[in-house]
Amino acid sequence: MVRLIVNRLLLSVVLVVISSLAIFFLMSLVPGDPARTILGANATPDSIERLRQQLGLNEPLLSQYGTWFAGVLRGDFGQSVFTGDPVVALILSRLQVTLSLILLSTLVIAVLGATLGLLSAVRGGVLGKLLDAVSLVGLALPSYWVAIVLVALFAVTIRIFPATGYTVLTDDPGRWLLSLILPVAALSLGGVTIVAKQMRDSALDVLARDYIRVLRATGVRESSIVFKHVLRNAALPSLTVVGLTVVGALTGAVFVENVFVLPGLGTLVTQATTSHDLPVVLGVGVFFTLFVIIVNLAIDLLYGALNPKVRVR
Amino acid sequence: MSARHSPSRKLLATAIAAIAVLGGVSACSSAPSSGGGSTSGATTTGGTLTTQFAGVPISLNPALGGSGGSAIFTSLPYDSLIWQTGDGTLIPDLATDWKLSDDNKKLTLTLRKGVTFTDGATMDAAAVKASLEYFLKAGGGGTRYAGPVDTIEAPSDDTVVINYKSAYPDGPAYLTQYWSVGQIIGPEGIADPESLLTESDGTGQYAYSASDSVTGSSYTYVKNKDYFNPDAQQFDKVVVKVIGDPSAVSSAITTGQVDFAGVNPTTAATVEASGLKLVKAPFFTWGLTVADTQGTLNPALKSAEVRQAMALAIDREALASAIGADFTHANGQMGAEGTDGYVDGFGFEYDVKKAKSLLAEGGYPDGFSLDVLTENILDGQTTISQAIAGDLGKIGIKVNLVVKNSVPDFIQASLSKQYPAVIWPVVGANSAQVVSNFIQPGVTNPFGNTNEKLSALYEKAQSETSASARTSAYEDITKAANEEAWFAPVLSTDNVYAVGKNITGVTASALNPNPLPQAPDAKYAWKRTK
């Protein structure tokens, strides 16, 4: 396991280099000039040139990247070209929002998806058919659209939840939860249906196995069969799907944060991209890359814990 | 049977309990954002005012910050020398009196006494001179609004004199809260401009609180206890939330999460239907700007007849009606109704027959192809641009729209001199300000065109000493601009704001289309009703 973790950490360095290079050069292809954006339409060419010089934008691309990467190796991710705030401070100030959103969504996706899938497999009948239909709908509805509908229904028409904004957990846990219910619902809907469908198919597959028949024949209680044997075996493929939906939720968070005006990394990277704030885009890009690596590592470790056959030595 | 159903009942009970708990929390959260404070007459002071703005501040340093509506980020902590009320009247702020010389080249300001910056320094002539000079050197986007400044003098502690190289009657108007040149920064802030990004140093009603703010999301300003006129301070705290998505803006104002918001015309009706007040004022004039008036890229554009033909081919009324007549108005002249120099009943009409005839006179009876640069941020979904292109097609001008997806990209593309025409809104309190967009280099004049007639009229207007003579000169500019037809005006669009049910005093006009909550005199400040 230690070897796996070390390998993943080494791989993460390579992935960070590749992803940051990709972000850097893609951003350089996007038309626009941060100096022009900062100074506006009426700025004089002289003042724009001065600012470009000051921001180091006149350096060759590779040199700019080298300067940035050398800083990263020293733990310095640079500063926002707009606000002058250190990138790490900006990311940390937004981290709680995005992590709250992703972790709660993951919990909802995993628990609700697995419960619905298992229930459908065990009970079958109408619930199974319903789940099939809902899965298709869940897949087809973009989280952005779901978010708008949820706001219209539960924030504007029936005023149960706040339409926008975020409350810091330590300020007021009740309001924190309240501010996240609609965003988490919007972000989780697709994932829940995918995981439920996966879990149902896997559970049906396990339920049809001979050893389940043997267990039933030997008088083992149904609840024990379902939770000890079916769930454990059917959970493995679903775990992979949960991992994928968590990574997908990261993308969804960018849209959902914008609809609910949550001050998270999604809104930060959206603002930074539209304003050509390269240090911030790169910083968030590196964070997202590391997040995906950590999620994949966690899934691998969980896989091993659930299934000794694939346990890494 | 009953045993089998019991889990469902438990679930139901749990669900009801959960809803009850959430309802309780919700009830707590929907309490008004204001709290505490004192009451007087029908209004109450104190509490928090929460407003919305669509974008992040360009900078929290006023010298590098934005103008117009985005001035809210800097005008709260930085008093301006002069204040502009909702109807456009100029009233004292840091300057209690001001006077332009007869030739409009010298502006003398008398400063208020007993005012201090948040850094503890006294606001006097030396500090104001230093702030104005720093602004001119800082290189921000608003530098041009300072005017043709020659020298700035501080002949006494309470007198500042600005000498202009040429006549500049708009000088006082550009020293108001909307133009960052007039926002005065304290000595410590000037000595360390980087500090202004995290700590304000002004004399304003509020001070920026970085610890209560989330960069790019919400900006919090707390009451300045040393403000020179405490009676004018209506709130303990002002929070500016950055909400760009129109549907999110609509949700936030409708549910009372913000007290004031700029709303999109497409969602304004929904917002109004929820019982909120709408305040609107003419702002942009949209139109097609002919950048290549010398015909370098497209020879047809050198002909005034061709340019006039293009302006006559546009069906303004149909477009205004299609977009939404409540907030959009057909306009055949470059200034919006209500601005100085707007001529009643004047402007380009929709006349396809005459347009075709002029096109033939200009040597292009069969039309020509034309590349037109536009963007889809201000002109959402390029509705206006496509309508203009469609109308020009009716007289044989085949428009190739080149659409940019961001304003900076549009600006950069326009300044590249690769596009003979651009679609971009213009704005100004008078026609001299508007015409400067076409006779001074910039995004609507990337080729640096000059026009003797328009420039002469511009100079004449600047040197007029009486308001009536200036208005007459502005009207001459409006008429001459249509003759030259460098700009084919199409529509005026309103700035539309939704105001919370218990907020009063929000006013806007063509001369001041961007309401701000604070004012140096309580009479003009927004208030919360009891």
UniProtKB/TrEMBL annotation, chain A:
Keywords: Cell membrane, Membrane, Transmembrane, Transmembrane helix, Transport
CDD domains hit by this protein: TM_PBP2
SUPFAM superfamilies: MetI-like
Subcellular location: Cell membrane
Gene3D superfamilies with a match to the protein in the record: MetI-like
Residue ranges the record marks as coiled coil: none
Transmembrane parts of this sequence: 9-30, 99-122, 134-156, 176-196, 234-260, 280-303
PROSITE patterns: ABC_TM1
This protein's name: ABC transporter permease
Source organism of the structure: Naasia aerilata
From TrEMBL, chain B:
UniProt-recorded name of the protein: Peptide ABC transporter substrate-binding protein
Family: Belongs to the bacterial solute-binding protein 5 family.
The keyword Amino-acid biosynthesis belongs to this UniProt entry's keyword annotation: no
Residue span(s) of domain Solute-binding protein family: 90-428
Range of residues in the leader sequence: 1-27
Species per Swiss-Prot/TrEMBL record: Naasia aerilata
Keyword annotations from UniProtKB, A to Z: Signal, Transport
Pfam family, one: SBP_bac_5
InterPro entries, A to Z: Peptide/Ni-bd, SBP_5, SBP_5_dom
